[in-house]
Design goal:
7 helices; 71% helix; 146 residues; disordered N terminus; Four Helix Bundle (Hemerythrin (Met), subunit A)
């Protein structure tokens, strides 16, 4: 029964994820996939904050995923004309491009700070908090409300 419930729960997540990307193609799909990878990496790092079996390698690996998708790589996924459904990107991205680019650069800087702090689990809390605040600031200003 447990295996069935676990499978059912995973199936719901997969279906919901697929629906969120339904109809997305090209650069819009690329950025949705990048966001999905970033979210997964953030969750993995968060799990390490209180883990009894802390792994700096897990933290570094996931911070590297965030770093890879941030900065210039990230803003390149938002060319003009790529707003609108199924994307959740707000038109404010293109109205405040410099602000959007700064938050993307900040995200990369925060990911590097997490890698720098990864050797000590207790030192990770503040850099992680800063990263999550950066994500939240971007979502608040540059993501359409659901």
């Amino acid at each position: 029964m447990r295996k069935f419930l676990l499978f059912a729960g995973l199936a719901v997540l997969v279906v919901n994820g697929a629906q969120a990307h339904m109809g997305a193609t090209g650069v819009v799909l690329e950025r949705m996939e990048a966001m999905k990878e970033i979210a997964s990496a953030v969750k993995a790092i968060k799990g390490q904050l209180s883990s009894d079996s802390y792994s700096s390698n897990v933290v570094i690996e996931n911070a590297s995923i965030i770093e890879k998708h941030a900065g210039k790589s990230f803003i390149n996924l938002f060319p003009k004309g790529s707003e609108g459904g199924p994307s959740e990107a707000s038109s404010s991205i293109w109205q405040d491009w410099d602000g959007f680019a700064k938050i993307s650069d900040d995200l990369q800087t925060r990911a590097i700070a997490i890698k720098d702090a990864a050797s000590d689990q207790r030192s990770l809390k503040q850099p992680f908090t800063n990263l999550v605040k950066t994500c939240g600031a971007c979502h608040k200003k540059f993501r359409e409300k659901k």
